[in-house]
Amino acid sequence: IFVISDSCHPQTIGVIRTRAEGFGIEVVVGKMHSFNWKEVQGQVCGILLQYPTTQGIIEDYENIITEAHHSGAKVIMSCDLLALTMLKPPGEMHADFAVGSSQRFGVPMGYGGPHAAFFATKDEYKRLMPGRIIGVSKDSQGKLAFRMAMQTREQHIRRDKATSNICTAQALLANMSAMYGIYHGPDGLKKIASRIHDIARVFQKAVQDLGYETSSPESFFDTVRVSCRSKEELQSVLKRLEESKINVRVLDEKSICLSFDETHTKTELDLLIRSFAGRDKGSDLQKIVESLPVPSAIQVRTSNFMTHPVFHSYRSEHELLRYMHRLQSKDVSLVHSMIPLGSCTMKLNATSEMIPISWPEFALPHPFAPKEQMKGYWEMFEELSESLVKITKLNKVSLQPNSGAQGEYTGLMVIREYHKSRKEGHRNVCIIPVSAHGTNPASAAMCGMRIVVVGCDEHGNINVKELEEKAEHYKDQLAALMVTYPSTHGVFEDGILDVVEIIHSRGGQVYMDGANMNAQVGICSPGDIGADVCHLNLHKTFCIPHGGGGPGMGPIAVASHLAPFLPSHPVIPPLHVDPKHCLGAVAAAPYGSSSILPISYMYIKMMGDEGLTRATKVAILNANYMAQRLSASYPILYRGKHGRVAHEFIIDLRPLKATSGVTEADVAKRLQDYGFHSPTMSFPVAGTLMVEPTESESKAELDRLCDALLMIREEIRDIENGKMDKEDNPLKNAPHTADVVSSDNWNRSYSRQLAAYPAEWTRTFKLWPSVSRIDDAYGDKNLVCTCPPLESYVEAEQRVA
Fold it and tell me: Which Pfam family name is an example for this entry (predicted)?
C-alpha cells in the first residue's frame, strides 16, 4: 500500500495512481493527521506528503513521519523549492525523500513545461535512485573532472532490472534553474521568498478585514485560501476577477485559492482586493502593511543552504554571463561541428522554429488556465496532432508524455488497458529484441509486464523463427512486441510485415519505438507496417533541441482500437479523451511540455509534405554516402538486403582492437582532438561506433568527419605496423588538452603538432578539450565531491567585494 495525503496536488495524485497500477501497488488517499496506522501495520511501503499543501498550508509533519517510520514505511515530501528557503527542510524532519519541480527558479510556466524536477534522498538510498547522476572523477593529469556515476542502476545497462526507464533528464531546464540560484544566491532567494510571503500576508489581512474567512496568517507561505459566505458571493467575486483578467483556483462552491510569486506588484494586489471589496476603491495597503503582526516562527528554517562558493560569486549580469559562457565553451555542440550520435538524430534546431517559444503567449500561461483563454494553444495542439496522425497513418495522438521513455511507458499502459477491456488482463508478456534500446525493457517492467527476449540473426535482423516459436509458446499471455524500425542496427528489416503478423495472429499488439522515425517520415509509416502504437521523439525527428539531455517530448500515436485508452488528466482533460475507458494521467500537465511544441509545429508547417519526405531521403543518402566512403577502411557491421543502410550505420572496431589494441573509446576520445563529438559508443553492439549524420549536414561536413575517421585509421595502421607504440600513441593518450600540449615537459613518442592539430581545419579553429582522459575507476568510487574548505568561501566573498 502507498498512502498519499489528500492535501497533495490533484495532478500528483493522478500520476501516482497511474504509475502504481503497473506495479500492482494499492494507492490510498487520506487525511494524514487522522490516519489509522494500526489498521495497515506492516502493509504500507511509503507515504507522500505535500509541503506546503495544495491549499498552501504549512503543516508540521514530524509526528506523522515518526509514525510512518514506526510502521515500516518510507516518507516522501513533495516540496516547493522557494518555500524551503524559509521553511524547515524535509531532511531535518527525517523524511527519506524530497521531490518537486524547480520551475520556480526562473523557468516560465509554459502552459505545463518543460521544467526540471528534483529528487533528493539519504546517502543510503543512492543506488536505488532513478535517472542519471553526475559524479566526480579526475583526468589523466590528476585534474578534477565529472562523469556519469553509478551507471549500473540504469536502463542502458540493467534494462528491465533498472531503477527507472529514464534515458536522459531535463538538463537544459536544470541549468536554467541552477543559474537562477547562482545569480541570486541564498540571501537573494530568501529576499524573494520573504517578499512573496509579505504580499500574501497583506492580501490575507485585507480580505479578512473585508469579512472573508481566510487561511490563518501563520499557516501559509505564498498561497491563501479564501471562503465566501455563499455561492452567489463567490460567483460575484469570480466575475469581478475575470473582468480584471485574474485567474484563481476554485476549490469548491464557496472557496478559492490564490498563489503569489515575485512577479506580482502593488497593482495586481490592489486589483485583487478591489475584486473582493466589490468597489472601485481598494484598501490602504500601507496601513495594512504597518498593521501586520510579526510573522510566526512556525517551521522556520534555521540551517544554512547553498554554501558552495559558486552561489556567492556571481552577482552581476556581466559576471554571470561570463561564467555561463566559460561553461558552455567546454562543450562540443552543433555550433562547432556535426554531432554524429547514432539513434539520437542531432539535426538543425532552426532559429525560426525556436523564436516562438520565447513569446509570452506561449511562455507564461498556467497549465490549468481556463480553456477559453487558450484557444490558440488548443488550435496548435489540434493541428500538430493531425500532422502526426498523417505522418504515422495511425488514428489518434496524445501529446502528454514528456519524453521518449515516457511515451514507451504510456503506449504500453494503453495496450494494457486495451487487453483489460477485453477481459484479457492476464496478457502480460512483452517480447523485446535483444538489440532494443534499454528503455524498452525498463518501460515494460514499469507496466508490470514480463519481458521475453528474442535474438537477432547474423545480419542484425530479428530472428523470425525464434520470434514465432516464442510468440506461439506465450500466445495466451502475449501482450505486445516492442520493435524499432528501421532496426537499432540501422537497417530496414525486410521481414517486418511477417514480424507484425506473427504477433497479431496470436492476440498481441505491436509497439513501434519511434526512435528512428527520421528514416520513415514521408516514405513509410508505422500504420503502413501494421503497428498499433508508436511514440515519436519530437526532440529527434521533429527538431526540439536535445538540450544536453532534455527537454524531450514523446507523444504517442495509436490505431483506432486503442484511441479510447489514451491518457486523461484530473484537472484539464485533453482533446478527444474517452472518459469511460481512458488511462489516467502520465504527466502533471495535460499536454506535457506544451511550450516547446511550437518548435515541432513550425518545423512540420514550414517543411510541408514534400520537404519532410526530402529530409528523410537526404538523411538516408547521407548515411549511405558516409558508410560507402568509410567501408574500405572500417568494417560496416550491418547492411540491408541490397547492401545499403538506413539513416545510420555501425562501424565495427572489434577487428582493429585485435590487431592494434585500439578500442572504440580510444577512437571516440581521439575524435575530440579533431573537433568532433563521438558517435554513439558500444550501442547497440559492444566495441562499435554508430553514426547518424541526419539530413542537416552538408557534404563538406560529412567529408570532414569521414576525413577525421580516415586519418584516425592511418594512426591505427601505424600502431599495427609498429611505427607507433601500442600504449604511447595519440589514440591512447587522447584527448589532448591545451595544458598537456603546452607543458614544458613533453615526453611522448609523437609530436605536439600531431597531438593538437591532426587535421588542417584544427589550425583554423581549435576547440580544445577541457579535460584529459577520464579515470573511470576513480569516478565509480566518488559520487559526490567534498565541499571546499571554509577558506574558499572567504576568498569568494572577497572576489565579489
Answer: GDC-P
